[in-house]
User: Which sequence fits this backbone?
């Protein structure tokens, strides 16, 4: 643990369990930067204190064609997610009670144990979408390998079984929401979880590994109402098992999944 | 056989007040199944407020899916009930609420819309107009309120103008997913429902839901709303 560099906000809020919050998403460490846009003596320029930024997906917007078109990504990332980020920053301007959190911390704090504060929707949707873009890659799909595959087979019986369960969850989710492959912290096992609207598993202190956006805006432009085709395209061509492997390796620092079987010569 | 089905559909439709398009049919075993009601106008008739592409998808794909899945759930419910399988009956309730609600809500929605030539967008007169002025100040104020609530709704749902038939008061309510208005109050009767699921506007308005809400009032069928209101509050 000593070799990790501590995030400044972790020190600022010592009462939080900084270990998990900081290391959960090492990819997306964000320093809450307070930047004032120069006014240039213009009364029309609004004073915006930016707290969180719009993070780019780890690939170009046309990289996921033909399974997710550039046009869809431009709208989904460029307009929807940007709207959530700007909405969140505008809400946070109102008072400084929620200053200084990382995005992870902000999501958990605004979830408020099931009675979400008004900022929760925007904060969680920003987090969810960052996680979603990172869960995909061009040339994704296929199968996981080695330890991850073993864990899936242990908790679902077989990879096919897991895939069926995941697709079935996506198709049976009523309304807007997300489907997750989660590592449950207390049960120490993988599970497929559905959440509504903006809720995500980190509010229950579980560790998400894959997320799939099943809000209609996530697939409507490419697949119209055919959610099944979209989910299959995701599982077969988009989901990045490399990223999932990295996530579960990191998660094993916090959840003991048992000793690996070392083959005896 | 076909004649008997026609007769039953008409009488059932008249009894249930669903109108000449019905949306109700009977099948074997006396289990009532439902069918997709026809639109009283062309898919392109509501342009430019709502595009023909959206109307076609919304009606032929989304509403049809609700009808199909509702029928399926009802059949499963019928089986579970006749077997006395209580857990199965309870488990089916969410599918029935979702798909049945979807069918009910969309059947009302199609009647809430009308092409401009057929009176769409014409403000309400008579007792409903008077009641709106009484409850909200003006039709504009009501529209602003409904648009604000519709835009603020997180996720999927509906925004309603309803009348409380006990208290004889108009109310503005939102429901999530496909919950019908009656889930917000047993004496609430829907007058106007606006679908704010993304599928209702996405292809045309993308994520700008407020623009969709602003424009849909141009094709809202106040005549139908007045008829329902006058029936509940004569």
Assistant:
């Amino acid at each position: 643990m000593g070799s990790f560099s501590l995030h400044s906000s972790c020190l600022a809020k010592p009462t939080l369990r900084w270990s998990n919050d900081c290391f959960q998403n090492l990819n997306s460490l964000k320093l809450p930067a307070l930047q004032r846009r120069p006014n240039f003596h213009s009364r029309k320029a609004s004073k915006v204190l930016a707290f969180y930024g719009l993070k780019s997906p780890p690939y170009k917007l046309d990289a996921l064609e033909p399974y997710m078109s550039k046009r869809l990504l431009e709208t989904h990332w460029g307009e929807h997610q940007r709207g959530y980020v700007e909405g969140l920053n505008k809400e946070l301007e109102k008072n400084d009670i929620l200053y200084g959190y990382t995005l992870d911390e902000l999501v958990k704090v605004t979830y408020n144990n099931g009675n979400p504060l008004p900022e929760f929707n925007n904060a969680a949707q920003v987090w969810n979408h960052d996680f979603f873009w990172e869960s995909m890659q061009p040339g994704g799909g296929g199968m996981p390998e080695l330890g991850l595959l073993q864990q899936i087979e242990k908790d679902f019986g077989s990879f096919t079984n897991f895939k069926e369960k995941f697709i079935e969850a996506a198709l049976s989710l009523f309304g807007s929401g997300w489907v997750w492959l989660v590592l449950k912290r207390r049960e120490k096992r993988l599970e497929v979880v559905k959440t509504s609207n903006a809720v995500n598993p980190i509010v229950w202190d579980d560790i998400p590994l894959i997320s799939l956006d099943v809000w209609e805006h996530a697939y409507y432009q490419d697949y119209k109402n055919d959610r099944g085709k979209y989910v299959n395209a995701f599982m077969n061509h988009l989901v990045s098992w490399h990223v999932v492997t990295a996530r579960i390796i990191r998660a094993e620092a916090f959840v003991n999944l048992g000793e690996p079987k070392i083959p005896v010569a | 056989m076909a004649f008997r089905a026609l007769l039953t559909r008409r009488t059932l439709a008249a009894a249930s007040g669903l109108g000449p398009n019905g949306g109700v049919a009977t099948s074997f075993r006396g289990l009532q199944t439902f069918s997709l009601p026809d639109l009283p106008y062309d898919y392109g008739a509501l342009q430019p407020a709502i595009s023909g592409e959206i109307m076609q998808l919304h009606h032929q794909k989304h509403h049809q899916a609700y009808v199909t899945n509702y029928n399926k759930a009802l059949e499963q419910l019928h089986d579970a009930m006749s077997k006395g399988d209580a857990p199965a009956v309870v488990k089916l309730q969410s599918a029935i609420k979702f798909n049945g609600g979807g069918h009910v809500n969309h059947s009302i929605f199609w009647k809430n819309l009308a092409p401009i030539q057929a009176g769409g967008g014409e403000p309400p007169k008579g007792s409903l107009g008077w009641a709106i002025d009484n409850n909200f100040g003006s039709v504009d104020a009501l529209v602003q309120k409904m648009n604000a609530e519709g835009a603020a709704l997180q996720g999927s749902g509906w925004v309603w103008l309803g009348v409380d038939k006990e208290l004889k008061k108009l109310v503005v309510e939102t429901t999530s997913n496909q919950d019908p208005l009656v889930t917000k109050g047993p004496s609430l009767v829907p007058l106007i429902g606006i679908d704010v699921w993304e599928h209702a506007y996405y292809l045309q308005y993308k994520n700008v839901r407020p623009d969709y809400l602003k424009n849909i009032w141009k094709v809202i069928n106040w005549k139908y709303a007045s008829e329902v209101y006058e029936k509940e509050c004569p």
